[in-house]
Write a structure and sequence with these properties.
The chain folds into 3 domains: about 220 residues, Bira Bifunctional Protein, Domain 2 (BirA Bifunctional Protein, domain 2, 2-Layer Sandwich); about 100 residues, Anticodon-binding domain (Rossmann fold); about 70 residues, Translation Initiation Factor IF3. By secondary structure, it is an alpha+beta fold. The relative contact order is 0.11. The strands form 7 sheets. An 11-stranded mixed sheet has the order 3-9-10-16-13-12-11-24-27-23-22, with helices on both faces. Strands 18-17-19-20-21 form a 5-stranded mixed sheet, sandwiched between helices. The chain has a 3-stranded antiparallel sheet with strand order 4-8-5. The chain contains 14 helices and 27 strands. The chain is globular and about 80 Å long.
Length: about 500
């Protein structure tokens, strides 16, 4: 099965698509730019969703749901917001079809009085609702999250990384003070960082976006940025401090304890199925998908090796205590005892699908009181006694999780450099990776760098090099180094 996957060094883009195909994560849809998420891919998303949902609720948030359709006039109320999304909006103009000569066409009599926008994001429809929810300081804060799908009319798409329709969560909160809203924005950024590093085993840089890269309608946009194996950056999550922009646009005020009416302060934040793309490109190899155990739908697969029903029965009986112990330890297990597939084919299938640990049990293993344990991340195989193997496997899953993070972190460190001159920067960027360099803070210089090198400022790091210097392009003063990379 591994032979069906292109080597990363030969064609990274094709390798990425091959891994998705062989791991049975997703297919292209008949609708250009959309995808069908297969059970393997959706199980992975459900695990991500489950962890994040718990983290959100542990920080005081509640789930709600808002309409898919947004009146066109709502997007006109916040000027920067509509400008940022105008070219990506899908617009509904009619409400029905009619039959014509055995087919269907749009019924011209069903034109809507006001067109509807298929949500690209939900700030406008949510803030219209908040106007009715908020009257007093006692109604604040409002801490709402929504799990939903959104549509952005992308012209150049790639499975999981950028599709016209994708799944995500979007948090929308309202606060009485600016300080509370800023604290919420940074708190959710930290939630995303924790999830990326502790569960995805994907090291990230946290920072704030430049003005040109901000979310449309935000005062500040914070982000987590990760580095993929091909040296390109991936924006993996964003948290936005919206100030009072949407409160003013939708006239959302509250009466404070002194009886004064004030506009509320707002945030929004989100991650999407793009995280699956980031997971693939952070850990996977030329044999297929590699998954961190904390998110793997199946953490351990047990494959009995047999030539007849008697050998099969003995293998299953032999494995039963181990399966029971692992389940009691909260480990997700699959017993692959299918009769119509050879062991080698099963090994290749589970390898391509990224199962962290594979256990094989054959007649000789039973005779010797052993099992064969294979790690997906390193492809190492070891024979260990079945006695006490439950605790060994539990600890091995923890080791794999940590090793994946450390390997990704080292790869990032090995591909992070500093540039003091523009010539040096242009030479380094051709090899990919992160580059720290001084920038004078102007849109003109930022645009020049992007046009000439295809590199963008990924963020102004929150914990970066704060030493002042001179812009690598203009020589003008620079307060601190910023993070550059080519990106997805």
């Amino acid at each position: 099965m591994a032979k069906r996957i292109t080597n990363r060094e030969d064609d990274y883009s094709q390798w990425y698509l091959d891994v998705i195909k062989e791991a049975k994560l997703a297919d292209h849809s008949p609708v250009r730019g959309c995808m069908v998420i297969r059970p393997n891919g959706f199980s992975l998303w459900e695990n991500m969703k489950g962890v994040l949902d718990t983290m959100f609720k542990n920080t005081g948030h509640e789930n709600a749901y808002f309409p898919l359709f947004i009146p066109k006039s709502f997007l006109s109320k916040e000027a920067q917001h509509v400008e940022g999304f105008a070219k990506e909006c899908a617009v509904i103009t009619h409400s029905r079809l009619k039959s014509v000569d055995g087919g269907v066409e749009v019924d011209p009599d069903s034109r809507l009085e006001e067109e509807l926008i298929v949500r690209p994001t939900s700030e406008t429809i949510i803030w219209d609702a908040y106007r009715g929810w908020i009257q007093s300081y006692r109604d604040l804060p409002i801490l709402i999250n929504q799990w939903a799908n959104v549509v952005r009319w992308e012209m150049r798409t790639r499975l999981f990384l950028r599709t016209m329709e994708f799944l995500w969560q979007e948090g929308h909160t309202a606060h009485a003070t600016e300080q509370e809203a800023v604290e919420e924005t940074l708190q959710m950024l930290e939630v995303y960082r924790t999830f990326a590093e502790d569960y995805m085993a994907m090291p990230v840089v946290t920072g704030v976006k430049t003005e040109s890269e901000r979310f449309a309608g935000a005062i500040d946009t914070y982000c987590i940025e990760s580095l993929m194996q091909d040296g390109k950056a991936l924006q993996a999550g964003t948290s936005h401090f919206l100030g009072q922009n949407f409160a003013k646009a939708f006239d959302v005020k509250f009466q404070d304890s002194d009886g004064e009416h004030k506009y509320v302060w707002a945030t929004s934040w989100g991650v999407s199925t793009r995280l699956i793309g980031g997971l693939i490109m952070t850990h996977s190899d030329d044999n297929g998908l590699v998954l961190p155990p904390k998110l793997a739908p199946t953490q351990v697969v047990i494959i009995p090796i047999f030539k007849n029903d008697d050998q099969k029965s003995k293998a299953l009986y032999y494995a039963e205590p181990l399966i029971r112990e692992l389940k009691e330890n909260g480990i997700s297990i699959k017993l692959d005892d299918r009769d119509n597939f050879k062991p080698g084919w099963k090994f290749a299938e589970h390898e391509a699908q990224g199962t962290p640990i594979r256990i094989a049990i054959g007649p000789r293993d039973i005779e010797n009181g052993n099992i064969e344990v294979a790690r997906r991340d390193t492809l190492e195989k070891n024979i260990i006694p079945i006695e006490g193997s439950g605790s060994v496997i539990t600890k091995l899953l923890e080791t794999i999780q940590n090793d994946l993070f450390e390997a990704a972190k080292k790869r990032r460190e090995d591909n992070t450099r500093h540039a003091d001159s523009y010539d040096e920067f242009k030479e380094i960027i051709e090899h990919g990776g992160f580059i720290y360099a001084h920038w004078d803070g102007t849109d003109e210089t930022e645009f020049k760098i992007k046009e000439e090198t295809k590199a963008t400022i990924r963020c102004i790091p929150l914990n970066g090099d704060d030493s002042p210097g001179k812009c690598m392009v203009t020589g003008k003063p620079s307060a601190k180094k910023v993070l550059f990379a080519r990106s997805y």
